Amino acid sequence: MDERWYTVGSLTFPSIWGAIIASFILTFLFLYFWNRKASDWYSNGVFYCLVIWKLSVILVDFQNVIEHPITILYFNGGMWGYWLGLLTVLLFIFVKRVDRTSHLVIAWMSTVVFFELIFHLLQFDILAGVFQFIINGALILFLLKKENDSDTWAIQLVIVFTLLQLLFQSIYGGFMFTTVTWTYLIVMVYLIFFNGRWKTNIE
Predict the structure, then answer these.
(1) Full-prediction pTM beyond 0.85?
(2) 191-199: long-range contacts at Cβ-Cβ below 8 A with a sequence spacing of 24 or more?
(3) pLDDT tens, residue by residue, 14-66
(4) Residue 133: in which H helix or E strand, if any?
């Protein structure tokens, strides 16, 4: 399926970027009413991610930025900027020492749930989006009920959740290693590592 593009005023963007921004906003609102502390570090992480993504154009296209500084306002670091932004967030969380792995997993899963829903809606694939949202939402609710139990539940669930997203993608268009799938896998591995580090620190 070809990715759709949207125009708001003078800004033109692909549906995937619209879904990413919308998922950040919706997840922040969810966390704000669920756990104010989680919404604080989440919003900081998103801010750092967007700033790095935007300013990484300096590294990606240094010569052009030197010659035309205004380029920074209109361009971003593209795919390289995206990965730098993601790396910055993961490092921020590592240093920030989020108090519970389950809180981190809930924030991540919520972001993915909203991203998948909004992306499918923007692609006018409404049935697939609603179906996936119901399944993903059920997993989030289950995790919220288990949130006060051992964080092992959170890690087990995020593994199942990630594999489920890959299954959905293979059903919709055939499995491929895309930026989205690599992001899901990298964050899953990071969360497993983070949980091991958190357990070590509290023992």
Answers:
(1) yes
(2) 191/101, 191/104, 191/105, 191/108, 191/154, 191/155, 191/158, 192/155, 192/159, 194/93, 194/94, 194/98, 194/101, 194/104, 195/101, 195/151, 195/152, 195/154, 195/155, 197/94, 198/100, 198/101, 198/151, 199/151
(3) 888 899 999 999 999 999 999 889 999 999 999 999 999 988 888 888 788 78
(4) helix 126-145
